[in-house]
């Protein structure tokens, strides 16, 4: 299966082509950036497809991150992925950033829990907690940093995400520390591709995964956002449960 993966949800603009038949990334590019995803993405995707020496028609599936993340950034990736999928008549699937952060750790059959955390500002984080085998312990939510720290009750965790260091710095002194702190500005695009290959398309829609409404809204329009905010305890993303299925296949070095 040939998968084109796209990620613009956080502080990177990235794309990769994965060949599951050979278990290798055949092309990849990732650029660190906080702004400018809209201008950078399509040229970047074009370069990746050129490096892969593939037409879009040869792809079997397109995978894209759905959030949590930058409201503007994730819409850039989603719009591009859906547009490419429509033009090439290919299915498109969505993966959460929290799941993409956790997947490589789960693939290693970690014994302890994994806390994926993304900075939500205002002393809050988006987070989810899974066991070492990928089963859900705390479903994705947004909450005060103290709420995420309360997950210490599951044992010493592996912290991952762009808020991993924030949690580590606030970790209570009277409990065992995290086994590892893996601060990453964005998920590894190779794992977005692997998760994209593993999910069932109908169970992983390519639509924004919001845990709260935008911080700012037009003052003249007091109505709620067009995109409804999910509950604070939504159904768990479908993609994480399949991370066990790909644990035996390590992605190629993404460079």
Structure description:
With 255 residues, the chain is of the alpha/beta class. The chain is 25% helix and 25% strand. It is built from six helices and ten strands, in the order βββαβαβαβββαβαβα. It has helices at 37-52, 71-88, 97-106, 145-149, 164-169, 189-198; strands at 2-7, 12-19, 24-32, 61-65, 92-95, 114-121, 124-130, 136-144, 158-161, 180-183. It has a five-stranded mixed β-sheet with strand order 3-2-1-4-5, with helices on both faces. A five-stranded mixed β-sheet has the order 8-7-6-9-10. Strand 9 (158-161), helix 5 and strand 10 form a beta-alpha-beta unit. Helix 1 crosses helix 2 and helix 3 (97-106) packs across helix 6 (189-198). The chain is globular, with a radius of gyration of 18 Å. Residues 218-250 have low confidence and may be disordered.
List keywords for this structure.
alpha/beta, five-stranded mixed β-sheet, 255 residues, 25% helix
Please summarize what this structure is.
This protein is an alpha/beta fold. The protein contains six helices and ten strands; from the N terminus they run E-E-E-H-E-H-E-H-E-E-E-H-E-H-E-H.
Structural class: alpha/beta
Q: Report Rg.
A: 18 Å
Weakly predicted, low-confidence segments? 218-250
Total helices: the number is 6
Mean pLDDT across the residues is 87
Strand content: 25-35%
Q: How would you spell out the order of helices and strands?
A: EEEHEHEHEEEHEHEH
């Amino acid at each position: 299966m040939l998968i084109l993966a796209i990620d613009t949800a956080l502080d990177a603009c990235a794309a990769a082509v994965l060949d599951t038949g050979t278990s290798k990334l055949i092309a990849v590019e990732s650029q660190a950036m906080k702004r400018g995803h809209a201008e950078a993405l399509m040229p970047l995707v074009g370069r990746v497809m050129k490096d892969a020496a593939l037409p879009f028609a040869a792809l079997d599936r397109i995978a894209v991150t759905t959030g949590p993340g930058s409201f503007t950034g994730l819409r850039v990736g989603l719009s591009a992925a859906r547009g490419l999928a429509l033009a090439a008549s290919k299915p498109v699937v969505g993966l959460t950033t929290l799941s993409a952060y956790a997947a490589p750790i789960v693939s290693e059959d970690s014994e302890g829990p994994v806390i994926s955390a993304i900075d939500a500002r205002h002393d809050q984080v988006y987070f989810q907690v899974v066991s070492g085998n990928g089963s859900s312990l705390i479903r994705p939510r947004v909450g005060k940093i103290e709420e995420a720290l309360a997950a210490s009750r599951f044992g010493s965790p592996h912290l991952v995400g762009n808020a991993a260091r924030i949690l580590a710095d606030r970790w209570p002194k009277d409990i065992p520390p995290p086994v590892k702190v893996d601060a990453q500005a964005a998920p590894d695009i190779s794992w977005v591709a692997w998760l994209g290959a593993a999910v069932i398309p109908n169970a992983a829609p390519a639509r924004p995964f919001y845990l709260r409404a935008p911080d700012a809204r037009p003052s003249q329009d007091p109505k709620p956002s067009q995109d409804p905010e999910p509950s604070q305890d939504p159904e768990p993303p479908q993609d994480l449960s399949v991370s066990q299925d790909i644990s035996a296949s390590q992605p190629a070095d993404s460079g």
